[in-house]
Amino acid sequence: MYPKLQYISQGKTIEEQLYNIHQALDAGCEWIQMRFKNQTEKNTFALAESVKFLCEEYLAHFIINDDVYLAQQIAADGVHLGLTDMKITEARTFLGTTKIIGATANTFEDIVFQTQNGCDYIGLGPFQFTETKEKLSPILGIEGYAYIFNKLKAEDIQIPIYAIGGITLENIESLITTGVHRVAVSGMITKSSQKEKLIQQLNEKLYANIIV
Ligand SMILES: Cc1ncc(COP(=O)(O)OP(=O)(O)O)c(N)n1
Ligand SMILES: Cc1nc(C(=O)O)sc1CCOP(=O)(O)O
Ligand SMILES: [Mg+2]
């Protein structure tokens, strides 16, 4: 199954992106989502080539934010698509069944819709306010995740759910009490001066309840 921790890359330039991604991989991150907004096709392709090489070296999963065509061209492991990006069904036709297609959700209804369209996991957010993404949907908070996870359980909907948005080491434990056991994070990892220790701490919390 997929790693429980996904790093969503940050950086205004190819160099900055590569530095942040390499640092995250070196610190033990096993899943990279390349998120490089408002860039030329040339720059995005150049970055994706380098990130693919890095992720192969570190045996990490590699998906691309938004761009299905680039994911196919570069043979990434998949994509992450939001509610205003290419439809899941269209992306699946294009990428096939072996690629990971993640989908964004802000409500229980979004989860049902995206799951019915065949996504492989859900990015459910935002948990808290974050400056990393410009146009945020309504903040869910602890109550929002608790409500949604209770409904998922009641209706026996089984799909990997990654919480996202403003997640920190300080608030992740409260998030886990709602039933969340997978997270996608950006700023917390990018900004950390002790990435290896942070990723170990996050994985300890996320894998703590695994019954072996
Ligand atoms: C794991 C994960 N969840 C949600 C998102 C947000 O995707 P989207 O709504 O398409 O917004 P942008 O990231 O494209 O600004 C994500 N990227 N990853
Ligand atoms: C990319 C993204 N999508 C979100 C959503 O709510 O759909 S929040 C977000 C930003 C996540 O970065 P950070 O961990 O720095 O808050
Ligand atoms: Mg998107």
Automatic annotation (TrEMBL):
Cofactor note: Binds 1 Mg(2+) ion per subunit.
UniProt binding sites for Mg(2+): 66, 85
Binding, 4-amino-2-methyl-5-(diphosphooxymethyl)pyrimidine: 33-37, 65, 104, 133
Domain of life, per lineage: Bacteria
Residue ranges of domain Thiamine phosphate synthase/TenI in the record: 14-188
MF GO annotations: magnesium ion binding; thiamine-phosphate diphosphorylase activity
The reaction(s) this protein catalyses: 2-(2-carboxy-4-methylthiazol-5-yl)ethyl phosphate + 4-amino-2-methyl-5-(diphosphooxymethyl)pyrimidine + 2 H(+) = thiamine phosphate + CO2 + diphosphate; 4-methyl-5-(2-phosphooxyethyl)-thiazole + 4-amino-2-methyl-5-(diphosphooxymethyl)pyrimidine + H(+) = thiamine phosphate + diphosphate; 2-[(2R,5Z)-2-carboxy-4-methylthiazol-5(2H)-ylidene]ethyl phosphate + 4-amino-2-methyl-5-(diphosphooxymethyl)pyrimidine + 2 H(+) = thiamine phosphate + CO2 + diphosphate
Cofactor: Mg(2+)
Chain sites annotated for binding 2-[(2R,5Z)-2-carboxy-4-methylthiazol-5(2H)-ylidene]ethyl phosphate: 130-132, 166
One of the protein's GO biological processes: thiamine biosynthetic process
InterPro entries: Aldolase_TIM, ThiamineP_synth_sf, ThiamineP_synth_TenI, TMP_synthase
Keyword Magnesium set for record: yes
Pathway as given in its UniProt record: Cofactor biosynthesis; thiamine diphosphate biosynthesis; thiamine phosphate from 4-amino-2-methyl-5-diphosphomethylpyrimidine and 4-methyl-5-(2-phosphoethyl)-thiazole: step 1/1
EC number from the UniProt entry: 2.5.1.3
Keyword Protease: no
One Pfam family per UniProt: TMP-TENI
GO cellular component: cytoplasm
Keywords: Magnesium, Metal-binding, Thiamine biosynthesis, Transferase
Enzyme class label: transferase
Cited PANTHER family: THIAMINE-PHOSPHATE PYROPHOSPHORYLASE, THIAMINE-PHOSPHATE SYNTHASE
NCBIfam families, A to Z: PRK00043.2-3, thiE
Functional description taken from the UniProt entry: Condenses 4-methyl-5-(beta-hydroxyethyl)thiazole monophosphate (THZ-P) and 2-methyl-4-amino-5-hydroxymethyl pyrimidine pyrophosphate (HMP-PP) to form thiamine monophosphate (TMP).
Family affiliation: Belongs to the thiamine-phosphate synthase family.
Protein name as it appears in the record: Thiamine-phosphate synthase
Native source organism of the sequence: Flavobacterium geliluteum
Phylogenetic classification of the source organism: Bacteria, Pseudomonadati, Bacteroidota, Flavobacteriia, Flavobacteriales
